[in-house]
Amino acid sequence: MIETAFIGGSGVYELEGLKDLEAIEITTPFGNTSSAVTLGSIGNKRAAFIPRHGTDHSLSPSEIPYRANIYALKTLGVKKVVSVSAVGSLNEAIKPLDVVIPDQLIDRTKSREDTFFGDGLVAHISFANPFCKDLSKMIDSFCESLAIDRHLSGTYVAIEGPQFSTKAESNLYRKWGCDIIGMTAIPEAKLAREAEMCYATVALVTDYDCWKEDQEDVTASMVISNLKQNVETSKKLISKIAENIDLLEDECICNASLQDALVTQRILDNQKSAKKLGVLLQKYITV
Questions:
Q1: Catalytic-labelled residue, pool 207, 214, 217, 250
Q2: Does 249 have pLDDT greater than 80?
Q3: For residues 242 and 237, what is the distance between their CA atoms, to the nearest angstrom?
Q4: Is 209 one of the annotated active-site residues of the chain?
């Protein structure tokens, strides 16, 4: 069983340091994953990796098969997911090349499948705290040990993309109190919670979006250029996380998020639909 997975974003298409690599195709009720799932070892730990945009960055944020990715990881037994994402800063105190470990989310996406449920099945998960506090704190401690400039907590506003924001939007999000802006934490965080996984994001800051008058407006080439400067930082941090993930308690409240969320009778009445979610529901209901 593999309990830890990493999901890579822009510029992170493979997991450095993984040995004994094995690429596997996992069939899911929600289609194909972004790419084959890579399994490997870091130190004496096994981990899984998926590049959410595909190995050749062929998937835009709106095209990523989020449900398939999370479902596939669930079938492997994954309990902890660390997402690596490029983001823009909406906060003067957060500068390019910093790392942010956000604790809150605002959803500004429009056209994404953001739940495993439906087709007669009903579940209402608690999402007040969208990121796992324990996993986030652990990542923060590793950042400190590696002398990485980081910020523990911050509000991530997720936009649909693939276009970047207008200046009006960027300034609006700042007035809302948002600290960083990206395109992939939603629905990934929602689906991880429905799959009862601990989920945390390592947000690599690449730019100031377009609100800062004395800075160039964000471009794709700017994002990639700054990500390349952050490659060594992310490699060291990911290795540290993978090697020490068992410092976390085996069980977390994230791992029981469906316990009080399921409308059980509806699921019992819809066995055909329930079978589709077997790996998610097997702890609670025989399907």
A1: 207
A2: no
A3: 9
A4: yes
